[in-house]
Specification:
Shape: globular
Number of domains: 1
Low-confidence stretches: 1-11, 21-64
Distance between the termini: 16 Å
Number of helices: 1
Radius of gyration: 17 Å
Order of helices and strands: EEEEHEEEEEEEEEEEEEE
Helix content: under 10%
Amino acid sequence: MKMGVFSKVLSSVMVLSVVFISVAPQLVQAQELSAEGTNESPAVIESVDSTALETEPEITVLEQADTDHSMNVSKVEVKEALSSLSGVLETSEDIVVDRDADSAIITSTEDGTTVDIPKNPEDGVTLGTNNGTTIEIGLPNADEAKNAKRIADGVVAYPAKDGSANAVQADADGGIRMLTVIDNQEAPAEYVYTVTVPTGGHIEITQEGGAVVVDDATVSPIAFVNIPWAKDAAGNSS
């Protein structure tokens, strides 16, 4: 999945959210589909759940983030950028997390959904269910990033040297937010998340602009990617 930079105003933040589902909800008609990042040729699905796909949340810019806008983006600058937006870091304040030698954050829900956010950015984020289904998401420009640093409850940043940096936030419902802070006008203009889906599954782009991971055998959704959103330092949205 690709997200383009919508503005060169510095300290822009782009967000991609992924949510696992345990029960297929009411379905509605979908648009033309994409097989990018899939394991097999896609089966035909007639519908996806548009009610599970968020529109832009009520996020406002509180103040300009205090960063030096150099190519090196530190964990402090990532936290500054995310703290300048209301309603972002606060959503994981009460989450309970674990960690191990390879994982910066591990969370689980009562229904068995797990999130594993790695220390090494090149390892990618893993979401899993109690039936063994897993989805892996590679972070953009991970080869330019350093290991994970905690910046808030349930949130880690990956400091980097290309004018942008990633952060990943776990939530209490077994989902994740993938956040990219763009802090320099020479930063990359494209951010690609490589999604690996289970064998026998594929990805479809929805009419609303999000995506759904589909199980080909049952032709039912496994997980949703909510509609990406972004804000620049002036509060402009895309």
